[in-house]
Amino acid sequence: MSDGEPLVRWQWIGDHAGELADYTAVHLRLGLLPVLFGLIISVPLGILCHRLRWLYPPVLTVANVLYSIPSLALFMIFVRYTGLTEQTVMIPLTLYTLSVLVPNVVDGLASVPEPVRLAATAMGFGTVRRVVQVELPIAVPVVIAGVRVAAVSSISLVAVGQLIGQGGLGYYITRGLQLDFPTPIVTAIVLIMLLALTTDALLVLAQRLLTPWSRSKVTAS
Amino acid sequence: MIRFDAVSKNYPNGTTAVDDLSLELAEGGITVLVGPSGCGKTTTLRMINRMVEPTAGTVSLRGQDIREIHAPELRRGIGYVIQHAGLFPHRTILDNIATVPLLLGWSRKKARARAAELLELVGLPAEMAKRYPNQLSGGQQQRVGVARALGADPPVLLMDEPFSAVDPIVRAELQAEFIRLQKELHKTIVFVTHDIDEAIKLGDNIAVFRTGGKLAQFDTPERLLADPADEFVAGFVGQDRGIRRLSFVKAADVPLRDGPVLPATSPVAPARAVDEPWVLVVDDGRRPLGWAAVAELPESGTLADAPLAPLGHTFSLVGDSARAALDSALLSPSRLAVGVDAEGAVIGVADAYELSAVTAAADVAGAPAGDEVGAEGPAGGER
Amino acid sequence: MNDLLSQLRLVGDWLTSSKQWHGDEGIPHRLLEHLTYSGLSLLFAALIGLTFGLLVGHTGRGAFAVASVANLARAIPTFGLVVLVVTLAGLSTTPVLIALVALAVPPILINTFEGVRGVDPDTRDAARGVGMTGWEVLVRVEVPMALPLILLGLRVAAIQVVATATVAAYPGLGGLGRFIVDGLSRNDYELVIGGSTVVVVLALVVQIVFTALRRFIVSPGLRVSAAKP
């Protein structure tokens, strides 16, 4: 970086506002769709693991192993099949969410008090109805705690996708390095953190609206 | 040996946990602190090992102000048992029990040997030594908690609702075991409970606290039942304190009369001549067999041929209390309680009205002397 | 399926080619670089994270600050941070290592803190009650009971560090990421996938090491959950 170059040139941000907005939208899509897909996979998988206890340890091991693989390496493995596309970023990010979401679905279901489960059965709920109408709603706070962790890390990981040309705001990170110009990098970092923290706050709000009965203090782990 | 002098505990938020408490606890006995929740009984207990520091007044142990003793050192010399045992989940049972000896710097070998002794003392099998707390039932964990408290053989034991988290059957077992242990060990024990029945069962002395941390009455269980200091204590002690008082009267003090007792070998005729509706039939060792209704006796033969109504149960003049005697009367078909000696031979009978005379006698004499007698009557089971 | 096989063959060819095993651009040298970056930063992060995590967990002071730092840290894009550091400080190892440490501290800190905080109050009360000093309560009770979470924090930090060290090849650092970044710029897919494979293997080894650690140093009493009262 040349001497005298400030960390942030506000002028640059003003000039690129429209473009920044476009990349922000892409970034959100790349970061949040995987969480949605992850949830679609994790809820049934979690219910299954809750009912078949033997299934849980192997599922958890696989999810943890996937989570431990660095994103850059995992992207590269998928490049072969899905090319330099958005899918190549979203599939690994989806896989990463499983290591948080599956355990939280299972823990959430386990948090349903036994008397509640028994009462529901005694009142004549069938299994499916009981899971959907009684157990899942009670599990919501724990599941959302997991969604918060998954969403925040997913949004911050999207940037790495820029190495295959699909990084949302990550574009400004590589651009800044190429131009030896810190403003875009700082802007991208701040915007990504804002996206992550705003999403987190919205999820907290969503939980309050979804579960008015529990103003509880479930913490993300 | 443990003395509270004008002790108060106030919290910054304005609540008073203990209010100007003065109390002296005797050496070698069980003092029970009892009262509703929020009455300061646990705070009082915890001031003895400095888990809570008083805001005013002094607590002294054998004449020494406990503030002069370094807190961890003080605590190593005082056994401490709490409600859920508070065992260390990452240590084996044996190592849990060896905790205090190890803190005191004993060698590992000596500490473990001591722990093994204690495991046996509290009635747990030796193979539990290698297990972890999670693998034990609540009652077993509580026993380990007691063993851990006894680790360095401290003269004083503090017990904070140690038996309230287990089911009633296990609780009764633990209480009986506790009474047995205390007979062996003679510790100075301070015991907190919210259960007045437990207090009466275990305590040599009972301190009843009322909400706001005030001492309402400090007395023996007998005096507490006979003469509650005020309406709060009377209400807390409960409606049936009259009957419970009988627990403190020995069955040996109960007035008995001979009554209609006949051996099974006796012919029917003398029984038919008895001027009572029931005759107690006994074997040749005078052990009771059952009650025969005079109106239903056969014309001839011996009493062995007569239909017998079951006894209900008898009470023993050695070991049972007047409460067991009263219960025996109420359950008997003849409304007569049967008193037996150590061999089970009938000594005499009494009805409920005659039995009630003992409490009147107790009132005249003041508190009857002696421990609570034996078991809580038949409903309490064998011990 | 055929495709998977050909991919595996590609990896096999690359791995067995002798030039991968010698010199500054060989696997051993890159692996050593990678392990050095990751190991050093994990070590410093552990020193910082454990110290503060234990302190805050034991005293209960500063809990809110710890939770906020951890939340905020999760939101930082690691890639962005590493690139920013190189842009500002030039291409040298130390600034990047400092960034890696900064990223690895929060998971260790928060998990250590929660592990100690999560110790059953009854157990802590009993520990004080039998006469343990504050230090003894920490060392003999709180740390052993917090170990499962402490290890989890270290594992998450290790995964983070290994992954970020890979990405750090982009602004020019060494390590296993070099294969991938160089392969991408040269359109050499064999290099990319070969390098990725080595990274995956390293990640698996890290995972195995932590599973083994958990087995050996966590008390069995904290794992059994039979006969809960």
Report on the architecture of this protein.
Chain A: It is a multi-pass membrane protein. Chain A: Residues 24-204 form the ABC transmembrane type-1 domain. The complex is a heterotrimer of chains A (221), B (383) and C (229). By secondary structure, chain A is an all-alpha fold. Chain A has helices spanning 10-15, 17-51, 56-68, 71-82, 86-110, 114-122, 127-157, 170-179, 182-210. Chain A has a single domain (35-210), classed as MetI-like fold (Orthogonal Bundle), CATH 1.10.3720.10. In chain A, helix 4 packs across helix 5 (86-110) and helix 6 packs across helix 7 (127-157). In chain B, a hairpin with a 5-residue loop joins strand 1 (2-10) and strand 2 (16-25). Chain B is elongated. In chain B, the strands form four sheets. In chain B, strands 6-7-8-3-9-10 form a six-stranded mixed β-sheet, sandwiched between helices. The longest helix of chain B has 18 residues, at 168-185. Chain C has a single domain (2-218), classed as MetI-like fold (Orthogonal Bundle), CATH 1.10.3720. Mean pLDDT of chain C is 89; it is low at 225-229. Chains in contact: A-C, B-C. At the A-C interface, helix 3, helix 4, helix 7, helix 8 and helix 9 of A face helix 3, helix 4, helix 7, helix 8 and helix 9 of C.
Number of domains of chain B: 2
Q: Helix count of chain B, per DSSP?
A: 14
Mean pLDDT of chain B: 86
Based on DSSP secondary structure assignment, what is the total number of beta strands of chain A? 0
- How would you spell out the order of helices and strands of chain B? EEEHEEHEHHHHEHEHEEHHHEHEEEHEEH
Total number of strands of chain B: 16
Helix and strand arrangement:
The complex is a heterotrimer of chains A (221), B (383) and C (229).
Chain A: H1 10-15, H2 17-51, H3 56-68, H4 71-82, H5 86-110, H6 114-122, H7 127-157, H8 170-179, H9 182-210
Chain B: E1 2-10, E2 16-25, E3 30-34, H1 41-48, E4 56-61, E5 64-65, H2 71-76, E6 78-81, H3 93-97, H4 99-103, H5 108-121, H6 138-149, E7 156-160, H7 168-185, E8 188-193, H8 196-202, E9 205-210, E10 214-219, H9 221-226, H10 231-237, H11 241-245, E11 261-263, H12 268-272, E12 278-282, E13 288-293, E14 315-316, H13 322-331, E15 336-340, E16 346-351, H14 352-365
Helix pairs in contact in B: 5-6, 13-14
Chain C: H1 2-16, H2 27-59, H3 63-75, H4 78-89, H5 93-117, H6 121-129, H7 134-167, H8 177-186, H9 189-217
Helix pairs in contact in C: 1-9, 2-5, 2-7, 3-5, 4-5, 5-7, 6-7, 7-9, 8-9
